[in-house]
## 1
Amino acid sequence: MGTSEPEQDKQSAPHELRPAWSLPAGAGDTIAQDVEWPGQVTREWAWGGSTGAGVRVCILDSGVDPSHPLVGQVQRSVAVSIGEDDEVLVEDDAEGDLCGHGTACAGIVRSLAPDCELISVRVLGAGFTGSGGVLLAGLRWAVEQGFDVINMSLSTTKKQFAGILHELSDAAYFRRTVLVASAHNMPVESYPWRFASVISVGSHEEPDPLTFFYNPSPPVEFFARGVDVDVAWTGGAHIRCTGNSFATPHMSAISTLVLGKHPELTPFQLKSVLYLTATNVGGGR
Amino acid sequence: MSDELKAAVAAGVVGSEESFRSLLDSVVEVARAIFGAKASSIFLLDEETDELVFEAVAGEGADTLIGQRLPSSTGVAGWVLVTRQPLVIEDVSNDPRHSKEIAESTGYVPQGLMAVPLLHEERALGVLEVLDRPQRAQFSLVEMDLLSLFANQAAIALDLLQRARRAEVVLGESGAGASLLARLAATVQSLEEERREAALELLGGVERVLRRDEGG
């Protein structure tokens, strides 16, 4: 973590099969944890003093407007599309943001984690037809890059994509890439937020950006600020927005703060920290 | 398809486009009324051209927008369609670029809009938008849920409309006869009793003449 290049252990393909080695007798030392967990995990322990420095956050969305003062520096912007021979194209993107939503997400993450690295992966704009394939290709590319956090304020209802999305989500989980995905509050099946390997996010109505709740009745695992959020938008604008898609970057940002301070945490450990520091669990302390 | 089946299908399809369109009109009217909004519209995804088409509009733009087209994966409506995520935005007019785009697509610049995808089973069929609710108080998640309920109804209506259109195409391809007979049947059915009996008598006569000709 902390460099622009993917780490060595994140270089391999996401579908690489790794053996599940057993632990021989007396080898407990080999997996000693270098994190000393306190008796009580507090927000101060979890992210006190963190600015998100060294954490690479990917915004998988409509692009990001790099000229917006609330967004700051965008490390890299790419656009994903499918070529004529069904090949995946990942090209440098100079289009900016084709909706405004990606800029809003980037601005939210930047406001809470001012020193993180932001990377924009644009999966919109090439038409609706084929957008499911572009979304998958974009996510696969992002997982391959080994980003620490991938913000996905989107979902698909296509069952044909569910299996591969599930695989990608699990691959990310085991490669220490945290996928943060918007939950869907409509009466349809959609993915990937339903998968246990992602952090799924719905909205609460409180105004504090660091207030978040653990949901003891999944599939939605956390509720974060998602109502009347003042966000950056294209054209240098500020607008007020509501939706789970704005709650999601709040959880991405909090995850970024935690990983900035504790880069060794796996997604499983990170989720545990988020659980213990949730407003309704640790009392927001 | 047998002739009887064709006639039966045609009878079900003819005139149904108008009914489903009325249902969509009613959905946007009710959505507009419930939210006290200036306008409400439904976009249908045209898969052939990969564009969003205004299918029903209530309020501002109702006279001019039907049939107008937008890109399917850019702007707020495109984002909502592709990501399947509902979105509420206020103070849209702060954004000069999008104000222009929105004005071109809606006929005026709204202050705020709610947009929700129209999902039926696995498919994303279009987008429902509600423009300019008057209340500027804090948005509530209850309104979001209400919008989703409307979206569900609109999605069902859109699905029926698309089925009716597909059936019309199939009937059109298989000859004009079934369609003509179905229209005739629907017309006769709608007549007052006295005229209906007279029409049936007349049609019965036509049938006898035709059968005699067939017999040679």
Note: Residues 1-12 of chain A have pLDDT under 50 and may be disordered.
## 2
Amino acid sequence: MRGSTLKFLLLVAALVFAFAAVAAGCGGDGGGDDGEATQTEPGQEGEAEGGGTLVFGTAADPVVLDGALVSDGESLRAIDQMFEGLVTLEPGGTEIQPGLAESWEANDDGTSWTFQLREGVTFHDGEPFNAEAVCFNFDRWYNFPAPLQSPSASYYWQTVFGGFANPAEGSPGPDDSLYRSCEATDEHTVTLNLTRPSASFLGALALTNFTIASPKALQEFGADEGTVDEETGFRPTGTYGTEHPSGTGPFKFESWARGDRLVLVRNDDYWGEKAKIERLIFRPIPDNAARLQALQTGEIQGYDLVEPQDMETIENDDSLQLLDRPAFNVGYVGITQSHEPLGQLEVRQAIAHALNREQVVTDFYAGRGEVAHAFMPPDLFGYAEDVQQYEHDPERARELLQQAGVQTPVELTFCYPTDVSRPYMPDPRRNFEAFRANLEEAGFRITPRALPWSPDYLGAVDEGNCPLYLLGWTGDFADPDNFLGTFFQTQQKAWGFENQEIFDILDRAEVEPEEDARTELYQEANRLIMQFLPGVPYVHTKPALAFQACVEGYEPSPVSLETFNTVTLEGC
Amino acid sequence: MLRFVVRRLLLLVPILLGLSILVFMWIRALPGGPAQALLGERATEQAVEQIERQYGLDRPLHEQYLAYLRTVGRAEFGTSIATRRPVTAELKERFPATIELAIAAMLFSIVVGIPLGFVAAKRHGGVLDNASLVASLIGISIPIFFLAILLKYVFAVKLGLLPTVGRLSVLIDLERKTNFYVLDAILTLNGAALVDALKHLVLPAIALGTIPLAVVARITRAAVLDVLNEDYVRTAHAKGLGPRIVDARHVLRNAMLPISTIIGLQTGLLLSGAVLTETVFAWPGMGTWLVDAIRARNYPVLQGGILFVSVVFVLVNLIVDITYAIINPRIRYS
């Protein structure tokens, strides 16, 4: 018994000692150098001749560092630093610019595109970039094996290029494919042949998903290899996308410890503007409040998608800054016409007149929103100023309901998502509450239905189970097709209507090779859509990024295509 | 004793089998699936079907369950839908992170809680006693989330003493052998990493350990008060033993039984408390992993992760029971 007591006391003593050691370890650092290191460590090398390390706080780890196999923002952000496509977008804008191709030319009907490639470019693994490498990448995508044909992997190839050479069951095949073939005419000339004219094709090539990787690295490290078995599904076995991504961009891969850090280093052989910083580290911090605090302590130097409630804190802090991303999204009240009486135009018009969009945008978007009058952002070509307007007018709404001959109050279920913040709706519940009050004032009676964003809410909306709902879209690439085409080119349960006139004009606009004619077609489509009123767009927002004040040279892009090679830490 | 342990371990089999069915059915009863979660706004009907086919989610439920059991039989849990990595590989990274945090939190609560409760009992009714009562009440009632943000604000943002996120500073390199960073730093004789890892542990451990601390302090106080009134304590004093010896041998030792029970129970609760703490401190452990998995309807991770946590839970309880027998020879399992 005595021995046990002794043991216990010893144990307690050991614990006390251990904890004291912890406390001492920290206490000692408090006033001394380590405490300071917590404050400034990532920027400390910044003073040395414009080098330094920048730590960027992300919401999550990338899935894999292979542009062809991802569609999530955090993967794309990291891949953008290491890879480049044939074309890119002007920094901070949506205009198409030369990337790895210096120039390009289409044949008359827009089915064959010839690209003149940049010379003297090498991949990170030392392999030369040339026409063969381009064709290797396109053929790789087109010939993806069955497991990689899933939209969870190659969503953008399917969306833009439509099909695969050897389709798995349920996948689109060569008949649906826009891509026909790739020819390497000479070392630096490459021709992409399409099965039909496409005008949105060039803009889509600027997507991170179509950046060019080193063929040698892709093969050597088994980018497409994996095992498939009944129990576990597809499991990649290669290490290309986790340990050996190899592109041509301003940063190279160094190491990746999941949940902790992804480390990239400057590519000193970069053909373009070499990075000023030496190292770029992405650190996953899922919680928004935690990201803000990490920025305040200097553990990170920047993060994306600042919540509106944090903006004031950042603006009032001299050591921090807020950068606006140009508006490239739309938030809307969706209407599912398969629910009566929403199939009647007057009822939809009544909804549009009932909603006080100005109020919502002013109250809930911290000065970073503008009222939307169409389903695409105003800066994009094809936007029409002269679409039908629906000003806030409850009286008019009530008249329209009367004209429609429906019994008032009109009973409607209105769905909104919980536990989510999107760039176009930072706090969906507040938007919902405001719109609900508007609608009830104008002769509707609203039954609220709150659902967790993913997948419950999205599922309910997609299945057409929500008569009214809040949703939105952030553009992937600078083409109206990415907005209007996504929403209205085909029949969808979420909208629940069939309007051949709208479907047709969007089909025509998608393939029209003449830019002016295309712009006109989209303008006409915008007019038709706002007349038909499948839903009520209400906001375009400018999402914000936060940085420490000493970080300079970061240029926010509307489509989040940003590289850190222009960034300096000189003031840090 | 051995028979008791064996029987308890055998009981694990039906428990886990039942649990696996329960988890399997429960996550599939939730609306929506991995496909919608993966694609967000971009989930079209066709895309959803394709993904469900890819992961075999279009097959009958019993077939899916049997396929799942076969993966468990091979001591793996399938492939994470979100990351495309083996669930076991992620488990190896995540589990040590949570255990490291839980141990630190437990240490904090024991090392501070037992002396606090003991002193309060000895000064029964005094200022210190009342103060510790109030403090422990606050400790129990304060939401972890709020406490964590407060701690970070004071010690990191204002004072700049401690880091606020993660397990290690990004500029410190550490060879990860066990994924217990403190242990790894010791094993590789990496002093800088050791100090850094310990610094990263302090705030999360305090945030997570505060509720157990308050509970431990209150139970200690009550247990010590009980024992202080026992005849044998009076006898010990009467026969001339020094007060320290009485406290250590007679009072504290006999009070340890209820205290160790409560510590065992709190250890289980730490795993659930870790979810919130990990989120606030960007601590890459089991908690954030499973919460993400629920949101993403990441079935393989949920199935594997919950099963694994259950095994751990049962084992911890077993260890607690065995500890009873060691602390108190009156208890015999047969």
Note: The first helix of chain B runs from residue 2 to 29.
